[in-house]
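Researcher: Go.
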Amino acid sequence: MTTTRPAAGVPEPSQVRERVDAARRGLAEAMLEQDAKAVESAVARMHEALGEWVAVPETAPRFAGSPNPDIAVTPERLQRLWDAGWAAAEKAYSGDGRWGLPLTDLRGSGKGGPADRPEVRHTLLRRTAYVIIGGITAIRHGFGDQAAIRKRVKEGLGYLLSVQKPGGLFPFPDVRGRHPHFTPPLESLYHQHPEAFQDGWVIDDFGDGGLQFDNGVCAVTMLTAFEHFKTAAYRESAERACRWAVGRPVVPNWNYNAFSVWALARHIEVTGEEELRVPAIQKAVLGILPGQLPAGRWLDRHNCRTVYHAINLRGLAVLYRVLPNEPSLRRWVRSAIERAEAVLLDELYTVGASDADHSLTALCEVEKALGPSARRLGAMRVTVNAMIARLVDGRATELDDVSLLAVGQAVEAFAKRQ
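Model: Structure:
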């Protein structure tokens, strides 16, 4: 007899949620103790608590559809994609090196926005970082107006340097009342820890781990900038951000740890300095690898979603490139990469793309780690063609996250193949 698997996006029963929350608290304690065996046991309890809800996405996925891995990404189509992506980035430019200041103001709407807050002067730093990474990729491959792109990249880098905290953190903006997705968790954090908010920024997540997201992205951005421009300030900035990440605890949300692993591994790769290798490996061994199921997905309802699955895969792929010559560790990480990639490729070939920024980046990083693959190339075509359909052709698709990061990755993936 077969049983019906719960549908994606359907909330689990309250008793299941309570068991999962208890298991997650146990996992957090094991991670703080840095006890690999205890983490393994806690993950087993999490698996048991989830039951039939293991790897059932918390939100129903949306796919661009009509996957065809054989449609070529020609030079002309790639150029049109870059032009459309750059035009969208220019439209979102807010001045002074910032992109995407929030347009939604929820103050007075009854949604919890504090009416006496000063005007928001900052937004998610990832928005600026993605433009910088994409812009540098275009410069390397000769796409677009080189002078204009270089000007914007330098403005963005200057802005990021100006907001980095003395301790190395690239902080998260206080967008309460202006950003509908982030307002509820920020209000909750403010209620519990008002001291986490300082001069319009969130400077401490009190063990939640969320600050690792933008900090990791910005550290990688600075490393990308140093790699291209050879400016010492960018390297120094990246090193401070990475050292901040080293001091953060591993947390049960696997993808938060993956952002720090990505940054630490890229630092090793770009600078050749090996000091950060041990903490990078430890964060992966305790904070990414244990949550993966044998079939390749991560077990919890959040990290099994494609976007977070891809973030975890990307972190492991970059880490693999800087691992020491320890056969057992390399086999473990490589197996995790291969299983995670297989799941992503199957999805892209079957139902199409649902995420561009992180999925395409992950596939590009896997190619650098494991070498070329015809099946992976077809999946890249599926993703890039979905991006072209949305940005160039103006077709309404269900594709999420098409920033200049993804457009730059498309250039990176296909310009070299022309």
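Model: The first helix runs from residue 14 to 32.
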